[in-house]
Design goal:
With about 375 residues, the chain is of the alpha/beta class. Helix content is about 35%, strand content about 25%. The protein is built from 11 helices and 16 strands. The longest helix has 17 residues. The chain starts with about 30 loop residues before the first helix and ends in an 11-residue tail after the last strand. Bound molecules: S-adenosylmethionine.
Length: about 375
């Protein structure tokens, strides 16, 4: 019979004092280790679970914006972007009879858009209560440096329920989790994330009934992928119901399409380059194209009026970006070249890639920029 080994005295100490060694079950272990352990113990996870975990970690631990970060957004390119959005809000508020309103931004990043928009709104006589929906503590701190007196929320449920809401969202919906369905030789399945050693990889999971698929897409070729974002639809549905009940409007700008459609749009950005979304979860920005048609349908089902999508270019031009660029250049002639280049980037380079949608409460005026 084997005897228990005698452990020499030298090896009977307590745990190693090395604080850098984190086990996968430790909440402080790297996300990739925690996800790998969860998948090994309980099986593959949905794309939505993977994306929520990766982006939760990513945004909680850094400010990813700007030239030194992973990507740049329109408000970080020029003050004109936020200012014109501020004028869009002020114009709507003015034509609605100048009621008390709460101004809400979803995912405000560094707070740059909010600072520019609030400055423009103040010039038009609008000084609303400011509410930010933001989960990242790092970005909340950055927002507090640029905007004083804001109230922060984890989600839309705690937003004020006694005032009209004027809501703005730039590149927010593209960061919310998506589900993917993949067509296999035997039918449609939920796409899942498995883990082999330390490598994550997408696989086809349990079959889903064809009745869940749009009629026009059900016979797509094997390998086809359809995306849905229940998280985005949930946010839109909740906000639209609030706007219908309380009054107000919403402007959302993102890149996307009018679905449902075939296509795998899950992508990851690091240091301004595309990288593999299944490598190093939590270390890069994961996004998916936004299905504007489905978002607008979610809003109109709740009783809101829907507008768009229209190109960012058209909205910025209708809101007066040419006049604003000319005024800025006249005030700072030495910067005229860079102001023109920034305008060109917002209107030409990003102008057709990014699109805007709006919703408004019944009885509120038509939003500017969508005619
Ligand atoms: C791509 S950044 C856009 C930042 C900013 N709107 C801009 O245009 O510069 C996405 C923003 O949404 C926030 N965010 C991502 N997922 C979120 C979630 N589930 N709930 C609330 N905020 C979220 C991020 O922390 C970040 O502020």
């Amino acid at each position: 019979m084997a005897r228990p080994m005698t452990i020499p005295d030298a090896y009977q100490d307590g745990p190693s004092p090395d604080p850098s060694r984190k086990r996968a079950g430790d909440p402080e272990a790297p996300l990739a280790d925690r996800l790998a352990r969860a998948i090994t113990l309980a099986g593959p996870i949905s794309i939505a679970h993977y994306m929520a975990a990766a982006n939760g970690e990513y945004y909680a631990t850094r400010d990813p914006l700007g030239a030194g970060g992973d990507f740049t957004t329109s408000p970080e390119i020029s003050q004109m972007f936020g200012e014109l959005i501020g004028l869009w809000c002020a114009d709507l508020w003015d034509r609605a009879g100048r009621p008390d309103v709460a101004w809400v931004e979803l995912g405000p990043g560094r707070g740059t858009l909010a600072a520019d928009a609030l400055r423009a709104m103040a010039k038009a006589g609008l000084a609303p209560a400011v509410h930010f929906v933001e989960t990242s503590p790092v970005l909340r701190a950055a927002q507090a440096e640029r905007v004083t007196g804001a109230t922060w929320h984890e989600g839309v449920a705690t937003l004020p329920d006694d005032l009209p809401l004027i809501v703005v969202a730039n590149e927010f919906f593209d960061a919310l989790p998506i589900r993917q369905l993949v067509r296999t030789a035997s039918g449609w399945s939920e796409r899942l994330v498995a883990c082999q050693d330390t490598l994550f990889l997408p696989i086809a999971g349990k079959p889903v009934p064809d009745t869940l698929l749009p009629d026009t897409l059900v016979d797509a070729a094997p390998g086809s992928i359809i995306e849905t974002s229940p998280a985005s639809v949930g946010v839109m549905r909740d906000l639209a119901a609030r706007i219908v009940a309380q009054g107000g409007a919403m402007l959302a700008i993102d890149y996307g399409y009018e679905g449902p459609a075939i296509g795998d749009t899950l992508q990851a950005m690091r240091a301004h380059r595309f990288v593999n979304p299944f490598e190093a979860p939590g270390e890069h920005d994961l996004t998916a194209h936004v299905d504007f048609a489905t978002l607008l349908a979610a809003a109109t089902v709740s009783g809101a009026r829907g507008y768009g999508p229209v190109d960012q270019r058209a909205v910025l031009e209708r809101l007066g970006i040419a006049a604003r660029a000319a005024a800025l250049a006249a005030a700072a002639p030495d910067r005229a070249g860079s102001i023109a280049a920034d305008r060109e980037r917002l209107v030409e380079t990003m102008g057709s890639l990014f699109k805007a949608i709006a919703i408004a409460a019944p009885g509120w005026p038509e939003p500017e920029g969508f005619a």
